C-alpha cells in the first residue's frame, strides 16, 4: 500500500497498537467451534476470561499451513474387531465401520458415511453432502447444493437453483425456473414444469416428476425418487437411499453427516488445488431483541426483506469446520456463499445528474472459442510471446486460421470469434531481432507453437448476469472481452497492469534523479446495471529516463558532472547506484547498429581498470580496458568507475557504464522520494473538467470503432460518458458544547470551523512540556508558541495549563533517544512527588523527516508511555490561528476528549445504530513497497468505544507475513501451559474494551474493511467473518450479534463529474461534485448491494468517490440507512473540520497501520539498531502482558513482533 505523503506534521499519520482491556473476572468461556445453527463450542480453559478479562500481550500464531480437510491421522474405532485379507482390509468398531479394498475404499460410520472409489470418487453425506468423481466432478449438498462436472458443469440448489453445463446450458430455479441448453433444449417451470431436449428427452413436472432421456435414463420423483442411467446406475431415494453404479459399487443410505477416510485425510472439496484446512461455517446470526427495546422495533429489525433469500444472505449455509480449529485458510474461490442483493435503490437526498467515466459496451453476439497455446522454447516475457503470436497470425491467418484474427493474453490462452478450422495444430515461426545490426548479423530464433481447442466461452450467461437473472459473474467471458479490447493498445503503448503509457500521450515531466513521468490511461471492462461498460481513466506513473548510464548516474547522485566523474565513487554512492540500476535493461552503443540488450544484475566491486577475464582455455587473462580497445577500438575514459555486471554470478559479463544506454519504456518500481512524489502528484492533479476532456480525447484517440480486434469480436464502444442519476445527501447536524455561542452546527459544502464553538467534551491537560529539535529556534520563541497553542486549546473548550512543567529543552536530532528520556526523567522527578503523570509532550521538528519522527513516536509510545504532538518549525514562526485550531483538535482526542458528535446520535435517531448498543469497526492492512521483500505487512483494527455517540475509537495493530491481506490476528487461541488454551485476538479485546467503556456488550457489529480488491472478496469475508464470530463466541457461547461487513474501496478508477461544470449550484469551489453525492444506479453492480459516495469537498484535482460494497448484512440495512449512516460518519473525523473521503473507522485503521510501520521500520541504519533492539526486547518478553503482536506463517520465519504500547497510550486516539 502506498503511503500518503504528509503535508505537515501536525496532520501527520499516526497509528496505534493495543486497546484498553478490561481486567474484570468473568466466566470461563472459549471458542473454536463451527459457526453453525448451533453456537460455537466453548474452549476448555482455566482462569477468569469471558467478558471480564483481556490480554495486552501477543495473540498467538495462526496455523494456516498446508493440510487436507478433516482428519489428522489414521481413523480408529472403539473396541471393534479387525481382520486382514489378501487384497483388502476390514475394520469394524462400535461407532463406525471401515473397509479397504484393492481398487476402492469404503467407510461407513455411525452418523456420517463416506465412500471413496478407485478413480478418486468420494462421497460425503448428510447436510453437507459432497461427491467428487474421477474427472473432477463435485457435488455438495445441504440447502445450498452444488454439482460441478468434468467440462465445467455446475449445479447449485437451495431456493434458487442454478445449473451450468459444458456447452452453455443453464438452469435457474426459484419461482419461474428456466433452462436453456446448447442444442435448443428448453425448460420452463412454474406449476407444470416441462422439459424438451435435443434428442427427444422429455421432462414433466408436477407432484410426480418424470424424466426420460436419450439413452434410456429415467427419473421419477415424488416421495420415493428413482433414477436409472445409461450403464445401469440406479439411485433410489426416500428414507433408505441406495446407489448402484456401473462396476457394482453400492452405497446404502441412512442419515450421513460425514467421516474420515482410512488415510486420515478428510473430504477436500477443492482437491484440484493445494490441500487446505476446512472452511468455516457461515450462518446468519439470530437477532435477539435488546433489553428495553419496543417489540415493534425488535420485530422490524429481525424481519426478512424479500423472498430472494437464496442469493441475498445464504441462510444456514453449512461449510463444516472442525471444533478445535481456530483458524482457516480460505480457498481461492468460495462461491457457494452469496453476497447480499441490493435492498432497493436509495431515495433520500436531492436528485441530480452526474457523468461517469464509463462507456457503454454492446455485448457481442459471436460464438467465442478458447484455445490453449504452448510455445517452445518457453520464454518468461509476454512481449516475446506476443511477437511470436503476431508473426504466426501474419504468416498463417488466411491459410490455416480460416481468416480469423485471434486475441492473445500473452501467456497460454488464445481466443477467437468462431472456431478455427482445427481442434489441434502445430506451427513453426522464426523471429528476427530487429535491433541487432545488419541483416547478416541479426539473431534468429525458432519457435514451435501448438494451438489446441480448450472450451467455448459462453456469453449467454454474461447476458443473464447483467440482466440480474444469474448470481455469479461469468469471469471467463469478462476476461475474454478484456483481452480483446487490450490487444490494440498493447501493440501501441507500454502496458503496465491494466494501464497503458506512452511518451506520446502527453508531455514528459522530469521527476528528478533520472526519472520522468509518462501519461497514460487505465482501461477495464466492467459489468454494471446499464450492461457492460468500459471504464477509462487518466493515469501517470514514473519511468526511468532513457539516458546514457553515466548521465543517469550523475542525475541520480544529484551533483555536478565534473565533481562526480573526477573522483572514485564512495561506498554510499555505490550502494545507491546499484540499488537504482539493478534489474534495469540497457543497450550497448559501441557496436554501431548492433544494439544488443542486457539486464543489469549489479556493479563490480573493482574499478574497470582492475577487471580481467580469461580469453582462452589456458586461462590467459585480458583486462576489460584492453579488450574494448583491441576488439572495438573503443577507449574507456572512466577507468576508475566500476563496470555494470550482466548475466549471472557464475559467468559474469562486464559492460563499462559509458557504452550503455537505458532502454526506453521501463517503469520505475521502487519507492519515490519526497521530491519525486511531489512532482508526480503535481503532474497527475487535474481539475475535473480537464480530466473529463482528456478522458473523452483518449476514447476518441483509441477509435474503438476502427479497432480490428473489437470489429472481429463484434464489440461496440460508445464514445459518450455515461449519464447517471445521483442524489445529494444532506449534511448532518453536529453537536458542540453548551457553553459555546454555537451549540449546534450544520456544515456547508462539507466544511465548517470552530469559531464560536467549544469541543463537546474538552479534555484536561494539567502537565505538559516541550522539546525542540530545531537549532535556530530560540527557547523564548518555543515557549511563546507553546503558550499560544495552550491558549487555543482553552478557547476550544479544553482545560490546559498555561505553563509547562519544566522549561522547553533543545536537543539535536541525532540524540533523540537520550534527549527524550532525559527530558521525561526531569519532568517526572517533579511530578512523581505530586503523584501525577506527564499528560502531553509538544515536539518541534525541523522538517517532515521520517526517521526522526518515527524514532520519536516509537520511543514515546512504546517505551515512555507519552502522548506527543509534533509541530514543524515553519508553523512555529507563522503561528497561524487556523493551524493552532487544527492542532488543538488533534491534542483533544489524543488525551481522551471528543471534538464533536452527531446530533442524531445523541437524540438516538440513527436507524439500527441507535436502537441497541452498536460497535463500529474499521480495519486495514498496509503492505511494504515493492522491493522491500523482507518487510512485514501491518494490520490495524479500530473500534468505537462509546455508544450512542460512536466517536471515540481504540486501535490495535499487528505485524503479519509479507503482503498477507487476510488479518491473521483477529481471533487467536493462545496455548497456555498453566491455564489451558486462552482465546485472544484484536476483535475480542476491542469487544471487551467496548463493554468496559459503555457497560453494555455490543448488540450489533458494523465492520468497515479497507484495502480489499474484488478478487479477494470471498477470501476476506470467509476468514474474517469467521474470526468475528469466534471472538464473540469466546466471550459467551450464545453471543452472536448480527454483523454487517462492508468493504471500502478507494483504489478504483470511477470518477464522477458534474453534468454542467458551469452550474455553480452543482459544483464546489474546486469544480468537483458536491459532498454527499451518492450513486447506486447504472454504473453499480447489476444485483449486489453497493454504492459510490463522494462524502468530501474537493480541494484540488478530481475527487475520487469511495466505493462501498456490502459482503454480509445480518442487520438488514436499507439502501438509505447504510448510505446515510456512512455519509454522516464522514463528518465525525477528529482531525479536521471537514467531511472526509472515506468513513472514519477505515481512515483511523489506515493511520494506525501507518504509525505501526515506524515502530518496525526506521528509515536510517543508525536508528535501525535502536528499533532492532526494541523489537528484540519485545520478542524476548513475548507472551507476557503487553508483549508485541506478530504472526508466524507456515514455511516462513516468525515475523518480528511490534513493540508493545504503554497502557496509558493505547487508551486514547494517539494515532490522530
TrEMBL record:
Residues 1-306, 1181-1200 are annotated as: Disordered. Residues 47-86, 99-120, 134-248 have a biased composition (Gly residues). Keywords: RNA-mediated gene silencing. One of its GO terms (biological process) is regulatory ncRNA-mediated gene silencing. SUPFAM superfamilies: PAZ domain, Ribonuclease H-like. InterPro entries: ArgoL1, ArgoL2, Argonaute_Mid_dom, Argonaute_N, PAZ_dom, PAZ_dom_sf, Piwi, Piwi_ago-like. Residues 36-46, 87-98 have a biased composition (Low complexity). This is Protein argonaute 1B. The lineage of its organism: Eukaryota, Viridiplantae, Streptophyta, Embryophyta, Tracheophyta.
